[in-house]
Amino acid sequence: MDYYNEPLHDGSPGSKLFNYALQMESTGNIDEAIMSYTSSINQGCAESAINLGVLLMYRSRWESCQSAGLFLWAGSKGLSCGYRNLAQMYKKHILSGGNEMAAEFYLRAAEMGDAKAQCNYAIMCKMGSGVKKNITESIRWMQKSADNGYYRAQAIMGDAYRNGDGVYKDIDCAIEWYARAAENGSPVAAYNLAMMYLEGKEAEKNEKFGRMMLDRAVNLGYSKAAYEAGKIAEAENDYSKAVWLYTEGANKGEPGCIKKLYELGYYDRVSNINTVSLDNDYK
After folding, report:
1. Is the pTM of this model over 0.90?
2. Which helix (H) or strand (E) holds 91?
């Protein structure tokens, strides 16, 4: 759910009350924050409606309905995240109406230029979830989202061109979209780009660039990248680095990393080993 966690500039309607409510939340005084958000909304602050909606959403059935009204009002005041939060409530079955209502509100936000909503609506069109399945419409909205800079949509466009999914297969276009997505913070895109250049099957092999992208994916927290980078370090006899990388991946639940730590005798480094099945996940 979207939420405003930075103070508003003084002078905007209800900003002082909004900022006070944020302060009360940070100290755990939720009741005081709710009262301050409510007063701020009465002064016309749509951001307060978003935050109050998030605070009330899971408290009771009645208050979740209040949240829906607050999000709807914020959307009508120009905050597309209001409609997007409302769509999420339908997706999560907090409100009855299911995917059909979720798609309706994602579309409202998408039409306001909301990149995240454009991506989510595109996925629903592709899957036929809540709307009639339409690959052309899916690509159209995904393209809009990607053009608006949303890294997830950019990574998905990379996948589409890489696999010829809804568009003509074009590896150069795939690489371009992956590069943009990786630059904007997509760990999956950075990993895909890394493996393309390291393996040299879909792009001309470039060890230096591939490793740079793999490091970026690791730094962005992608466990599969930690596994691949660990294997490279192990092959180069840099066991300290390999164990560190395998530990990073293992503690995110990456089965390959956990298996490697067992093989190397460092299984005690895995903090969540009980969540992994040796029989199913190590093979």
Report:
1. no
2. helix 80-91
